[in-house]
Amino acid sequence: MYYRRNMQVKIYGLRGCCFGIANMILVKRMRETLYSALLLQDISFFDGETVGDLTSRLGSDCQQVSRVIGNDLNLIMRNVLQGTGALIYLLVLSWPLGLCTLLICFTLAAVMMVYGLYQKKAAKLVQEFTASANEVAQETFSLMRTVRVYGTEGLELKRYNHWLDKLADISLRQSAAYGVWNLSFNTLYHSTQVIAVLVGGMYILAGHITAEKLTKFILYSEWLIYSTWWVGDNVSSLMQSVGASEKVFQLMDLLPSDQFISKGMMFQKLLGHIEFVNVSFQYPSRATVPVLQRINLSIRPGEVVAIVGLSGSGKSTLVNLLLRLYEPTNGQIFIDGIPLRELDIKCLRGKIGFVGQEPKLFRMDISSNIKYGCLRNIKQEEIERAAKQAYAHDFITLLPNGYNTLVDDDLLSGGQKQRIAIARAILRDPTILILDEATSALDAESEHNVKGVLRAVRSDSSTKRTVIVIAHRLSTIQAADRIVVMDGGKIIEMGSHSELLHKDGLYARLTRKQTDALV
Ligand SMILES: Nc1ncnc2c1ncn2[C@@H]1O[C@H](COP(=O)(O)OP(=O)(O)OP(=O)(O)O)[C@@H](O)[C@H]1O
Ligand SMILES: [Mg+2]
């Protein structure tokens, strides 16, 4: 007896261990698959999703799905086998009584299905509400400074509580449904016993079965009902996992962006000739608002072109198309005469240095931030040379750990981040350099940084670069070969600084305004 129990404990332990390992592998694989599917989505996909929601899918949702294998499937299998055995035995003992019990089991199964479907729906809502709560928390933490300055802690707590209330409400309903399910089970369970005693008693009186058989019958029917209950209970939690996993599987099934599927043309050397031909564009998330309209622009290799215009005129969007973050709705972009779509995107991006309007840094040391994305082996001297060109070296050496200082987005000023981003772009030794001047850094520092880079580009005749500068401070770009003026998604003027002043259009007006503001 002791030996048997000991064996049983060992077998349960072994089974639990195997399921535990399978569970761990499943969660890991799911997270890997989901993360790599998300990383390869179009940028427009991220315009429609929130960070909180996506991280919630990666975190708790994947964990929830693993319950399918770790717990529920295991128990369902065991109870189905036990129940089937009991049913066969019951039918052999007395088929009319066996059929009665089977009928009760079917009723139980029907209630169980309804309950399971409800749980599936509820689980989906729980996941959605949890994701929304995460989203609020994530947003609040990342905008903590704004929250503190505006004193909106209470408001943010209210926003978070709104989702917590919804979660509590759904949990309450789940508990109520669980109560109803248990009540049905108990009623049906007791009905079986009553039926067995009544009908069985009559059978005994009629001499069809013996009292011993009836006792066995009652015991086995109890076993059958309990197995059905266990299956029901586990199916409902299985349904919860299925409900929670629906969005995870939907996301996992997303095809990677076209850019990663199609094999583009590789090239050794890029001259840096850029041509926009009749390019129009609207963002997929706002498909009715035209952002760029019939843009025609040709930039020669080595030319320094500045793009200016009022806020919202489409300057950054133009650059987004050149970086192929979005595809034009109409028209084409050519690089060295080859349509952008036909070039190998990785190869092309390797030749482009880009400093975004609001540069963001990774939570890693400064050296790693500067060499981020560089595939070749980079020496420390190269990093420092790039930092010097970007006017970043001096302030970096003043930091406690110099180039090894751990930074993230909050630990440096806007201008310092911009300079590190410029160093990152220069280190790639790009053929096309794109600088989107920070709107937030509309100060002499930003102007100094951008001007410095332009000077360095001009003075270094060994490397020819095509440069596109989006400038908010017009004095930054007076030395550009050509200035392109945009308004409402169109190019309205083009020429050198003096030509445009002479023309007395928008550029001249903007220049006058900025000069007046400075006086
Ligand atoms: N991801 C996006 N989804 C939808 N619309 C967008 C998106 N990004 C920008 N827009 C819209 O496109 C228009 C042009 O924006 P863009 O960022 O190109 O302007 P900009 O000229 O760079 O302005 P700024 O000088 O302020 O940087 C704006 O009306 C903006 O609201
Ligand atoms: Mg912009």
UniProtKB/TrEMBL annotation:
Transmembrane spans: 87-118
All residue ranges annotated as the ABC transporter domain in the record: 274-513
One Pfam entry name: ABC_tran
Alphabetical UniProt keywords: ATP-binding, Membrane, Nucleotide-binding, Transmembrane, Transmembrane helix
Coiled-coil region list: none
Localization per Swiss-Prot or TrEMBL: Membrane
Gene3D superfamilies assigned: ABC transporter type 1, transmembrane domain, P-loop containing nucleotide triphosphate hydrolases
Molecular function per GO: ABC-type oligopeptide transporter activity; ATP binding; ATP hydrolysis activity
GO cellular component assignments: membrane
Stretches assigned to the ABC transmembrane type-1 domain: 11-240
Membrane topology: Multi-pass membrane protein
Secretion signal, residue range per the UniProt entry: none
Protein name: ABC transporter B family member 26, chloroplastic-like isoform X2
Organism: Durio zibethinus (Durian)
Gene name tied to this protein: LOC111282371
